[in-house]
Amino acid sequence: MGGPAGADQSWGDLRLVATAHAVSTFGSFLNLVALGLFVLHLTGSPVQTGVFMAVRLAAGFLTGPVAGRLAARHRRPYLMIGADLLAAGMLVLLVTVPAGARTPVLYGLAVALGAGQTLWGVAMRAHLPTMVGADRLTRANGLVVTLRSVGMLLGFASAGVLVGWLGYHVAFLVDAATYLLSALLLLPVARRTPAADRPAPTTGRTTVAGRAPGRFGLLRAVAPVVPAMIAVRAADAFGSASHNVGLPVYATLVRPDSPATFAATFTTAWAAGSLLAGRWAARRAKRSGRGPTELPFGVATCLMSVCFVLAFTGLPVWLLVPVTLAAGAADGYAEISYTTRLQAVDADLRPRLFGFASAAQNAGFGLGMIVCAALLDRFPPLPVVGAAHGLALAVALVFLVAHVRLRTAARRQPAEVAP
């Protein structure tokens, strides 16, 4: 879109997409809490609760490459709408089926939520550059992270209230309504996405046979920086799994009288930090016109890991809140830097790259959940979180050192070849 009116329209569409993402995120975090409690209530088995989460994560992991291919061939807003409608339909089905049929529906819901969330995220991130252009991507990603953080805060805060006061069925119907609202917000964007803007199946870099490059060909096409960033993000997901699994255990140890209050303080401070990072990145990009680079991504990842480990060292609340806030801010800024960099690749590679990146992150998070849950049976939270985030910190430091060396070598090369 060339003129100011077109730019205003594209930014208006972005606001609709970011708001839909926030509403969908609210639903995701609401059901993350409510469904976990419901599975435990229905089955009475912590193992079944773990299996439910594992199915959800596995569905997200397996959907990543498929989501990339779908986003390369179809109008992405309609894919996002489809994912929302599937989640809403399965939640309504869970409420309306007889009690004896709820267990199989639950596992179908786990698949729908895991696959749908991955498809939604891949389609959205691949679509943003076609909406706002490369010069406003950092601002766009900052807005998305800001509103998503609001959705996370409200989702966490409302889950206990809805389940405790109104019951599981009302909570699930409210959850379904959030996905329907998200789909309605996306509908004008989908209608304004012309057929001419629909991504072609293959353009640009292809193999000799005329087909898109395979998975390793895709990584070679964007090497070395982008695959290295994906590896850092996967290690980061592994580390993040440790504090997600370890937080309930740690909260019970440090606040046995009110572990839920402690956990709520921790997650609220983290989400608030992510919100602040989104606002700051968007304003900085608007003022300077420059987006984040690979170096701040690596630094932010290191800072996030260090802060999360510090948060499990028994800090008093007055110090825990700013440390967790800093962890959330670093996490949010790393995500903005990472997403913006992946969006800068060739348009024909972008959807499949996001599909692969999503699968890598889901694999890191799922593996981290399994490993850290097993370790927490034998060790207290601090060494488990320290080891997992220590791995993420080590990978990020290797990335930083390699990146600095590559930049130094690139600067010296012209001088060496000069006569």
Number of domains: 2
- The N- and C-terminal alpha carbons lie at a distance of 46 Å
Shape summary:
globular
The H/E string reads: HHHHHHHHHHHHH
**Helix share of residues?**
over 70%
Overall average residue pLDDT = 84
Would you identify the regions where 5 or more consecutive residues have pLDDT less than 50?
1-5, 196-210
Q: Which structural class do you get from the secondary structure elements?
A: mainly alpha
CA radius of gyration is: 21 Å
Based on DSSP secondary structure assignment, what is the total number of beta strands?
A: 0
* Biggest sheet details: none
- Share of β-strand residues: under 5%
CATH homologous superfamily label of the largest domain: MFS general substrate transporter like domains
- CATH architecture annotation name of the largest domain: Up-down Bundle
| Helix run count | 13
